[in-house]
């Protein structure tokens, strides 16, 4: 599944594929899992997520990656590992691609996300409920691309991350207000977006 092609105003030295992890055990259980304490070693891919990735790799229609960087959460690591095995590539952990921290909502039902998103729409700087601000997520996600732009040239880099961080990154790269990140079509599990 593709969420479309975005044209950057400034040419990049590398091509980037942004991928949300496959359907996870947290998705299946309807839980918010956003801390390293829970996300690094538990809540990996669900059977549905494994099937999604198998289908995606069977019908791969995007540029072939030359490098894969991934959030070190289990669900993103397992997603990236399946792609890496398919293309015989090494993996590189990148903690800046981690899930957005949802503070006091950790471990609660995922029907609480809209509460945070409503606050996001008022201010990209808010940290109510102890959540990581949208602005902070945007800075760390953009810093990954900036680092790669300074260190690589002519590569096709697959970045495997999470729904909210990728939505926020795409909003930032489009030059739209970060408070509007939920205006974008939500990124489905195991979806790819190509930055041109």
UniProtKB/TrEMBL annotation:
PANTHER family given in the database record: PHOSPHOGLYCERATE MUTASE FAMILY PROTEIN (PTHR47821)
Report the active site residues: 21, 99
**UniProt cross-references to CDD domains, sorted A to Z:** HP_PGM_like
Which domain of life does the UniProt lineage start with?
Bacteria
**Organism of origin:** Billgrantia montanilacus
Q: Which Pfam families match?
A: His_Phos_1
Summarize where substrate binds, as residue positions. 20-27
The record's annotation in InterPro entries points to: His_Pase_superF_clade-1, His_PPase_superfam
Q: What is the lineage of its organism?
A: Bacteria, Pseudomonadati, Pseudomonadota, Gammaproteobacteria, Oceanospirillales
State the name under which the record lists this protein.
Histidine phosphatase family protein
């Amino acid at each position: 599944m593709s969420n479309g092609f975005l044209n950057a105003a400034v040419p990049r030295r590398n091509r980037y594929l942004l991928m949300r992890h496959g359907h996870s055990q947290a998705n299946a259980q309807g839980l918010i899992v956003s801390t390293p304490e829970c996300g690094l070693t538990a809540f990996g891919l669900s059977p549905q997520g494994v099937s999604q990735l198998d289908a995606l790799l069977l019908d791969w229609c995007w540029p072939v990656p030359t490098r894969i960087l991934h959030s070190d959460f289990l669900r993103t690591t397992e997603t990236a590992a399946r792609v890496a095995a398919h293309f015989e590539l090494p993996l590189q952990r990148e903690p800046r691609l981690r899930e957005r921290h949802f503070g006091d909502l950790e471990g609660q039902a995922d029907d609480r996300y809209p509460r945070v998103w409503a606050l996001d729409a008022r201010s990209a700087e808010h940290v109510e409920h102890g959540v990581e601000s949208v602005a902070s997520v945007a800075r760390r996600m953009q810093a990954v691309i900036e680092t790669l732009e300074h260190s690589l040239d002519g590569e096709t880099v697959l970045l495997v991350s999470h729904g909210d961080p990728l939505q926020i990154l795409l909003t930032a790269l489009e030059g739209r207000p970060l408070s509007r990140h939920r205006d974008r079509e939500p990124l489905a599990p195991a979806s790819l977006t190509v930055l041109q």
